[in-house]
Amino acid sequence: MVGQVSDPVLIEEAMADTVEPAFASVVIDISPVEEEPVTVTAVTEVAELPAPDPEPATGFALMVPGRDAPFSQHATLGEWQNAYEDLAEKTATAGARTYEERRTALKKLKQANAETLQSIDTVARVRHTAAYSQRLAALGAAQ
């Protein structure tokens, strides 16, 4: 090509041989577009948004002694009961602790979950009471 591409006259001459006559007089303007300046203002005051309310706990919380937050959360009381029994069994069979430490841990686990245990109907509560007594007996507690 001859000259600069941005010159409209030269673009017309260069296209004259290759473009149909009806389009030969098209002028393409490729000059830079001037933009309006952007104004940035400084923020002097920040509005504080209220903290979102914590999502209410749904279901049944399995608590462990010494922790404020639940160990686990369960949708149904039946799931909670199974999780409680699993945790109690793990506590009773923790080999690194003495029998006395395990008995104490079981009592604290029962106390931490006393409210939920009381909400279980009497027939289902027999399961937990019997399992608790068997674990204590296995750990050498006097009956």
Which features characterize this protein?
single chain, 143 residues, mainly alpha, two-stranded antiparallel ribbon, 43% helix
Structure write-up:
The protein has 143 residues and is mainly alpha-helical. The protein is 43% helix and 4% strand. It is built from 5 helices and 2 strands; from the N terminus they run H-E-E-H-H-H-H. The chain has helices spanning 8-16, 77-92, 99-112, 114-119, 122-138; strands at 60-62, 72-74. The chain has a two-stranded antiparallel ribbon. Helix 2 (77-92) runs parallel beside helix 5 (122-138). The mean pLDDT is 78.
Q: What does the largest sheet look like?
A: 2 strands, antiparallel
- The total count of helices amounts to 5
The number of E-state strands comes to 2
Q: Rg, please?
A: 39 Å
Q: Low-confidence parts lasting 5 or more residues at pLDDT below 50?
A: none
Beta strand %:
under 5%
**End-to-end Cα distance:** 106 Å
Question: What integer is the average pLDDT?
Answer: 78
Which percent bin holds the helix content? 40-55%
Strand order of the largest sheet: 1-2
**Which sequence of SSEs, written as H and E, runs from N to C?**
HEEHHHH
